[in-house]
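Why does residue order matter? Because the sequence determines the fold. Keep that principle in mind as you read this record.
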Amino acid sequence: MYLSDVDNAVASRDALRITALLRKRIATHVPRDVREELLAFSRRSRDSHRAPVQFLRFQHRISQLADGGEPMMTAQGELALGGTESRSTAGAARRRDGERRSAAANPAKEPDSADATDSPRQER
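Structure:
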């Protein structure tokens, strides 16, 4: 309904109506480049032959989505990620062997047999 109001204002080149519609809160759902184009369009002279192409493309895309027949998404629900974890373990980083540790932890590296012979600094 909002886009049809904007379309009517654009078709009649009613600059005051376009700017009034752009001030509404629902205008924040329109992409910035489309809003900027409509604002520039409203400031042009009435005899200009320039069309608000970005707005017309946006309006066409929205009408195609509305005609698609799919129900509109409402609020986003929570996804169950595995279902077996409790809230106390959610968000904790775990090692592959099952040991729990903080994601920011930097445990000391244990030297294995190859690292024991190689020293980080070699003396000359």
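The helical segments are 2-11, 15-22, 32-43, 53-67, 113-117.
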